[in-house]
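Q: How would the structure tokens look for this protein?
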Amino acid sequence: MARNHALIAVAVSTLFASACTSLELYRPVTAQPCSGLSDGERGCAIHELQYARGKVALGFVEFDDFGWFQDHRQIDAVLDYIRARQDETQEAGDGKKGALIFVYAHGWRHNAAIGDRDVGCFSTTLKLIDVLEQLDSARSGDKPRRVIGVYMGWRGKSLSGPGFWESLSFWDRKTTAENVGLGALTEALTRLDDVKNGTDQTRQDSPRGMEPDRAKNLLVLMGHSFGGQVMFRATSQFLLANVAVPPKDQPVRGYGDLIVLINPALEAAQFMPLFEAAKRQTFRTDQPALLVGLTSSADLATRVAFPIGRKFTWFNQDFRDDRSAEQNEAFSYTVGHFEPYRTHEARGQESRIDRPHPDCRFVDRAWLEGNGIDFGKNRATVTVVGDGTRRPSPYHMIYTDGHVILDHNDYFTPEFFDILLNKYIREYVSTERRHK
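A: Here is the predicted structure in token form.
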């Protein structure tokens, strides 16, 4: 019997040891960017900077479980690349001014490893944006801008093996996501915002510190699942401070141009201070959206599994007597599934279309045009509901059906990008080009 117990103990210990993923730097800093955008393409998997066709680039910045930079030279290299590309286009004088900069924080069970699905999907997203920029530029007569992606990697996957074992990391990885959001990520985002605005080396007396040549930059911050938690943690205090004391003669400013949270694994209680502060303000008619959350009714991970996971932490949480029911619900459910904070609903077309490939490595011009993804074409219907009908706010929480976002992970659909590009990002693109 003792021998059996020993064997079981050894087996369990071996399983847990083999199931833990290492805390390593996946994309070490190299001397030069690699001329490919896919893992394995010309050895690009080992580079912290990758690019394709000279117009699309992808950089990696990684963080450990404390939220510290794995190697601060990664963000330095990304920023140097953006500055260099801006200087090149200005010196050429050919109208290729500005860049479309997309920052992405992945979620649970993902990291910056070679072959990670989120790395592939984000690379494809950048190619999609590039194709749409080419199409839009052909119609407007402007030169297309560069598309630069920054993948913020953290150890969202700490266990490997059967799904049950990976699920045990829920509580630990949620805490880690909060640490990452409160760590060096804020420095990285602030420096990106600084370069985007041109305030790092341009006149401070320009509007918002921008010179005309750099005012065409667009910075979009995106986070999926626990990555939404990461991105919100890193930016929420800045957003709250700005809306608490808004400027009198201009719109409230956000972080970058737009923050997009996709099926965010973020409890509604964390969003409450920003929501309540916005309710006490009256915004200008030209106030753009600053933060957009999109949560699908078909996302069982945040609609069902997240509340179950939160119940195991109830024993350590006290609620106010006068708001017990509200706080209980806000503590248990994600912000997207918390109806009081819902401002919009989105419905997609029910006709059958080409759906996402499991690895998201398929985008080309024919697919885009065949599925109707284009600036100015609408595939999704968005309506204002709930609190959005009573008091307009720059913080939008959109509840979608399963045609817009299929489930927790599969948001790469024509309907989703129609909302993101046509109903939000296009506003900035059109405004900037009108004032070129």
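The longest helix spans residues 117-140.

The chain is about 40% helix and 15% strand.

Upvote if useful.
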